[in-house]
Amino acid sequence: MASLPGSQSGGGTARGRRTVYATRRVSFCAAHYLRSPQLSDEENKALFGKCFNTHGHNYVVKATVKGEAIVVKQLDHKNLDFDVPYFKQCIRYVSYTNLGWA
Fold first, then answer.
1. Where along the sequence do coiled-coil regions lie (predicted)?
2. Tens of pLDDT along 33-65?
């Protein structure tokens, strides 16, 4: 399984099959404000203070997926140029980069 920037991978064995975990960490910035539509502006300002105004935060999201590593079944003991349909039909040459996309 190819690693993406900011990703990690690890694995384990479940009933003789190889299980792979891939985690991607992404950060982004976004803005919001805190206000209640049931309150006046003055009440909102008193309740939420400086958060009444639009302000931003930096967020970090980590997403992990788990699955069986099927790449070995598709590629093990194969001629990548001739036996793997992805390379045979779509890619002119096999490289580590292209192997990650397969």
1. none
2. 999 999 999 999 999 999 999 999 999 999 999
Q: Which DSSP helix (H) or strand (E) runs through 19?
A: strand 17-32
Q: Which amino acid is at 9?
A: S
Q: For the chain, what is the largest distance between any 2 Cα atoms, rounded to a whole number of angstroms?
A: 72
Token digits of residue 39: 């309150």
Is there a contact between 19 and 9 (Cβ–Cβ < 8 Å)? Answer: no
Nearest of 13, 55, 9 to residue 33 by alpha carbon = 55
How many Cβ atoms are within 10 Å of 82's Cβ, its own excluded? 9
Rounded CA-CA distance 73/17 in Å is 11
DSSP per-residue letters across 21-79: EEEEEEEEEEEE----TTS-HHHHHHHHGGGGS-EEEEEEEEEEEEEE--HHHHHTT--
